[in-house]
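Run log // design_07
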């Protein structure tokens, strides 16, 4: 008779441990269990083969998930023993239903023994079976609650009954286990959003900080409420009319926050970072651009969602309109601002920077006042522009900045001064804006 090994296990009788052995073989390279053979390889036989066979087949079917029966074959031997042949399963990890996907429920074969799998082994099996799409993979934490998700779906009049969990992507179809998407939406979400407020533009002088956890829906509400407190309002007067201007368009804050939450890479455990200072707000999320996309693509509204099912849920709740519209909307809100939003990308991060409109306006007014006080005559820079227009007929903002080697704010002020002095005409707005010699000059 053979000895016990990585592929062979002996059992004199059927006990509850038999399910652990089946799981271990299915999670490793397969193997054979002999029932009616003692640890030394001696045949002891089984008193009631038929009853034992029925107990085995029913128990393996009912105690183990996902369904492993298609990889199990039973052979009744003449010497009153049962041979159970277990093949390597195709949807690991297999586990005890009573324990779930945790070390106490998942076993692997190690030498001639079946031992509990480590968390790293469980994660690797999940990844190998479920693929690389994080939100579709089974989560190792299966005890989840959805109080915040229930409230959110109810608020937007969308059904969140358990019958919808598979369709939404919260459970998989193989063994009805929760996915990582479910974990992200649950009250037990392990990811957080951190907001820091600084007193200087270099983000060195620290003033305040908050960390928001729980369901991604709770993080959205709490983070937006806190950012709204940071969004100061300033008032100016045009004649008798009082004009109020927030530092940031509320819709831009909302879209930037949604973009960070929906498109971050949740396979990493780090937090979303939001830095607030006097000149801008930085939204930094983990995960660079997906392969094939560029910053220009993102600005143009082209989008390939990293978390497709999560984006579909936010779209179903009408929190987002469609892929790619959020970034376009942000740029549209800044159309008439001298400073534009910026996108900065590394291999592992995506940063969206929103300029403080009131700070930008104050800087523009200050520089404009300085320019007006220093000279109203044609300066050398103005003459260079006029000569260029006389030769080529028109120029864009980019042409003006390149011609004079100046930044966008200075180009904006110079063009406005030349227009006010009747030297040039400004035709169009935004990206289509052009400068031409004044028809009245």
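design_07 sequence
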């Amino acid at each position: 008779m053979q000895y016990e090994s990585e592929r062979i296990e002996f059992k004199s009788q059927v006990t509850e441990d038999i399910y652990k052995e089946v799981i271990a073989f299915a999670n490793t390279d397969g193997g054979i269990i002999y029932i009616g053979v003692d640890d030394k390889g001696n045949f002891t036989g089984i008193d009631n083969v038929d009853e034992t066979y029925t107990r085995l087949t029913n128990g393996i079917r009912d105690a183990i998930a996902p369904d492993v029966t298609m990889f199990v074959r039973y052979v009744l031997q003449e010497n009153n023993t049962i041979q159970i042949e277990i093949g390597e399963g195709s949807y690991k990890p297999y586990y005890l239903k009573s324990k779930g996907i945790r070390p106490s429920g998942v076993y692997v074969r190690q030498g001639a023994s079946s031992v509990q799998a480590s968390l790293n082994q469980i994660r690797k099996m999940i990844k190998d079976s479920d693929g690389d799409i994080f939100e579709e993979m089974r989560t190792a934490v299966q005890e989840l609650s959805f109080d915040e998700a229930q409230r959110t779906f109810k608020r937007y009049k969308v059904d969140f009954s358990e019958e919808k969990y598979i369709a939404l992507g919260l459970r998989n179809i193989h063994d009805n286990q929760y996915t990582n998407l479910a974990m992200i939406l649950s009250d037990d979400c392990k990811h957080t959003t951190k907001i820091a407020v600084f007193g200087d533009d270099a983000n060195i002088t620290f003033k305040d900080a908050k960390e928001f956890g729980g369901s991604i829906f709770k993080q959205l509400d709490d983070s937006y409420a806190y950012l709204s407190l940071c969004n100061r309002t300033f008032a100016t007067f045009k004649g008798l009319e009082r004009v109020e201007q927030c530092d940031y368009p509320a819709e831009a804050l909302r879209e930037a926050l949604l973009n960070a939450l929906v498109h971050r890479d949740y396979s990493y455990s780090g937090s979303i970072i939001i830095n607030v200072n006097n000149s801008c707000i930085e939204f930094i999320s983990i995960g660079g651009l997906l392969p094939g996309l560029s910053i220009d693509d993102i600005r143009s509204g082209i989008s390939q969602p990293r978390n497709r099912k999560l984006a579909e849920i936010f779209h179903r709740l009408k929190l987002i309109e469609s892929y790619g519209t959020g970034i376009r909307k942000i740029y549209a809100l800044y159309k008439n601002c001298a400073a534009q939003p910026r996108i900065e990308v590394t291999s592992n991060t995506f940063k969206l920077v929103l300029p403080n409109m009131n700070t930008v306006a104050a800087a523009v007014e200050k520089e404009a006042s300085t320019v007006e006080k220093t000279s109203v005559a044609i300066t050398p820079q103005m003459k260079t522009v006029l000569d260029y227009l006389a030769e080529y007929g028109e120029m864009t903002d980019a042409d003006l900045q390149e011609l004079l080697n100046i930044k966008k704010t200075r180009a904006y002020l110079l063009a406005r001064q030349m227009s006010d002095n009747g030297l040039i005409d400004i035709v169009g707005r935004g990206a289509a804006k052009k400068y031409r010699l004044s028809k009245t000059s």
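The CA atoms of residues 299 and 327 lie 6 Å apart.
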